[in-house]
Specification:
8-stranded mixed beta sheet; about 20% strand; binds aspartic acid; binds magnesium ion
Length: about 240
């Protein structure tokens, strides 16, 4: 029995059929005897829409309220996914950042994770529930909701994998791995089977938006091997770890 932490991005959860596709991936792993924690992003372009609505209301939205607003996107997808997983016959519960014990500093809009209090999460996993965690968010020491910067649910997933000492950490995307260039634009783009943490950090610096840089830094620090794979295709993705692994 393995403890798996996995993360699904917004495109992988964009609509009902995508949500059920992800629910199917979760229930398959649970039925094989694994314990599964799934971190989710907001559906589709929800975060951009929430941002636009804030600027529609206020000339200069208060950072605290902006984070309170933006965090709802991930909470909605977590609740919807938990409902879908339960519909497929596996007990499932969703948690927001606060409930999953993710503590951060108070830097609204770009907060850093300072600790993960994983007791509640461990209890739920121990009871056999498929736990769905709203990514991209935590709580600061004053009890304010914070968000982790764009793409921050990658970092939520890696932080939870470290705190739970997970056996694997899989980041599901709408692409099936990391490429040397954007495969949608450059037909000569080559998929990497494996990348070292440092090479991946270099790609982040060159503008590869596939992973939030901080998630790779955290994975390097805790020596967590990442698997990048597609939620739509069953191909071998890219692993990120020590060089030559
Ligand atoms: N929904 C947030 C964003 O679009 C966080 C994430 O996707 O990881 O940046
Ligand atoms: Mg997103």
């Amino acid at each position: 029995m393995a403890l798996i932490v996995q993360k699904f991005g917004g495109t992988s959860l964009a609509d009902r059929s995508c949500i059920y596709n992800v629910a199917g991936i979760i229930t398959q792993k649970v039925r094989k005897g694994n314990r599964v924690v799934t971190v989710v992003s907001a559906q589709g372009d929800t975060t951009d829409r929430l941002l636009a609505s804030a600027w529609d209301i206020a000339k200069n939205p208060c950072p605290r309220e902006l984070d309170a607003l933006l965090s709802t996107g991930e909470q909605a997808s977590a609740a919807l996914l938990a409902m879908a997983v339960s519909e497929l016959g596996v007990p499932s519960v969703s948690l927001n950042g606060f409930q999953s014990g993710i503590q951060t500093d108070g830097n609204f809009g770009d907060a850093s994770i300072t600790a993960v209090q994983s007791e509640a999460l461990r209890r739920l996993i121990g009871r056999g529930a498929a736990v769905i965690v709203a990514g991209f968010q935590g709580i600061d020491e004053k009890g304010n909701i914070t968000t982790l910067g764009r793409g921050g649910s990658d970092t939520s997933a890696v932080a939870l994998a470290a705190a739970l000492q997970a056996d694997s950490c899989c980041i599901y995307k709408d692409v099936d791995g990391i490429y040397s260039a954007d495969p949608r634009i450059d037909p000569k783009a080559r998929k990497y089977d494996h990348l070292s943490y440092d090479k991946m950090l270099e790609l982040c610096d060159k503008g590869s938006g596939v992973l939030q840089r901080r998630s790779v830094e955290l994975a390097k620090f805790y020596r967590i091997k990442l698997q990048i794979c597609s939620s739509f295709q069953q191909t071998k993705g890219t692993t990120i770890g020590e060089s030559g692994q």
